From TrEMBL:
Keywords attached to this entry: Signal
Signal peptide interval: 1-28
Acyltransferase recorded as keyword: no
Basic and acidic residues bias spans: 269-292, 315-333, 369-379, 392-401
Biased composition annotated in UniProt, kind: Polar residues: 350-368
Protein name: DUF3300 domain-containing protein
Region Disordered, residue ranges: 256-441
């Protein structure tokens, strides 16, 4: 009986072992439960040491698993195509530019395109947990650096610097030569040191036979042949905001039929659901949300172009109005001068005749004004003078009449104190008797 239980126990362990190795996306494909740190580290382990520009474009491209597979098939059929020339060859394909850019690096497409489940899981994780994916990359780079397996060499430059807009230190990986890219391949169980999550061991995808790599160095990293690129690498990692962006100039130089409009040399990347037919993690709800985000971004870009165009039109209209206003003013001034008999600056007469005309006209106007002023003053003086004469005559008559009245009253006044009020006017007089010494009644 004990032996039977032992056999059953071993059998159950065998059955349970695949469950322990199920990928995180397989366990969460039907819902939107966030992936854990262990699951994220497992996903990004094969690509965390890629140069930032290549890494950013690869993350974008994985969000379109259907087109990623088409690019993988194309690369297999064109094994010699690489670099900017390969991207130009697929220009007629209706693929998202991030997917089309991957044909410049056949090692990447052949190695990872053969793992369609990983591609979809990586893309879904990047869409729903962008910041967490970026943090996972930095976490693994730190482990590789600590283990002594990530350092500058002939293929890459490795630096530690503050993230844009923050004081957080990040590890940046760039090509040693800007126009030559080496794609690394490595065993994650070696380069990252002791793996912290036994339940989620890192994925290891060695390059298929036929793709030449140099001999692995002591750090456990092997490098493919250098690929010359000019504009095929237009992506970048924005570690400060935990997302990826686009170098607009490089992007437009190689994607001539799908240029990005707008100002500035950097543009934030937005996922386009129109290039994806497979389901999203989170189902139709996630697809609808992605479509709304994309539509909003498109409207903002159109508004930006319309605003710029409107601003240009306003400036042009304002300049036109100013020119018309100046021209009208000039014409009015010329007309006024012609009406006054003065030549305009554009029709000057010889020997300063225009200046003499202006001077003569000004002098004549001054004389006319002076005469009018004197005439007005004389009229006012004459009017006042007449008023004063009439007043003086009236006062003189009144004075003579008063004096005559007083003389007549003096000559006719009776004795005893009678008082004549009539005077020379013929009015009746009143005689009042003088008081006697007794009291009057």
């Amino acid at each position: 009986m004990t032996a039977v239980f032992a056999v059953l126990r071993r059998y159950m362990l065998v059955l349970a072992l695949p469950l322990l190795l199920i990928t995180p996306a397989a366990m969460a494909a039907d819902d939107d439960t966030p992936l854990t740190q262990a699951q994220l580290d497992q996903l990004v382990a094969p690509i965390a040491l890629y140069p930032d520009s290549l890494l950013s474009q690869l993350l974008m491209a994985t969000t379109y698993p259907d087109e990623f597979d088409k690019a993988y098939q194309w690369s297999k059929a064109h094994p010699d195509a690489k670099g900017d020339d390969a991207v130009k060859q697929v220009e007629a394909q209706n693929w998202d530019p991030s997917v089309a850019s991957m044909v410049a690096f056949p090692e990447v497409l052949i190695t990872l395109g053969g793992q369609p489940k990983w591609v979809k899981d990586m893309g879904d994780a990047f869409l729903t947990q962008t910041a967490d994916v970026m943090d996972a990359v930095q976490r693994l780079r730190g482990q590789a650096q600590k283990a002594g397996n990530l350092k500058s060499n002939e293929q890459i430059n490795v630096t530690t610097q503050p993230a844009s807009g923050s004081n957080t230190q990040v590890i940046v990986v760039e090509p040693a030569k800007p126009d030559v890219v080496y794609v690394p391949t490595y065993n994650p169980t070696v380069v990252y040191g002791a793996w912290a999550y036994p339940t989620y061991p890192p994925y290891y995808y060695p390059p298929p036979a036929g793709y030449w790599f140099s001999t692995a160095v002591m750090t456990g990293v092997a490098w493919g042949v250098g690929i010359a690129v000019g504009n095929a690498l237009w992506g970048g990692c924005n570690w400060g905001s935990h997302d990826v962006n686009i170098n607009v100039n490089k992007y437009n130089n190689i994607n001539t039929n799908r240029k990005i409009e707008g100002s500035g040399n950097r543009s934030s990347w937005k996922h386009d659901p129109g290039h994806r037919t497979s389901d999203y993690r989170g189902g139709s709800t996630e697809r609808n949300r992605r479509q709304q985000d994309f539509n909003t971004n498109q409207r903002e870009q159109f508004r930006g172009r319309d605003s710029a165009a409107a601003g240009t039109r306003d400036v042009n209209n304002r300049d036109t109005r100013n020119r018309d206003s100046r021209e009208n003013s000039r014409r009015q001034a010329e007309q006024t001068m012609e009406n006054r008999g003065i030549s305009s600056p554009g029709h000057r007469t010889g020997n300063g005749q225009a200046e003499r005309n202006r001077s003569s006209t000004s002098n004549q106007m001054a004389r006319d004004n002076s005469n009018r002023a004197r005439g007005d003053g004389a009229t006012r003086d004459n009017a006042l003078s007449g008023v004063n004469n009439r007043q003086a005559q009236h006062e003189s008559v009144r004075g003579r009449e008063s004096n005559q009245s007083q003389r007549m009253q003096g000559s006719s006044r009776p004795s005893g104190g009678s008082f004549n009020r009539g005077g020379s006017s013929g009015r009746s007089s009143v005689n009042r008797p003088a008081r006697s010494g007794g009291r009057g009644r």
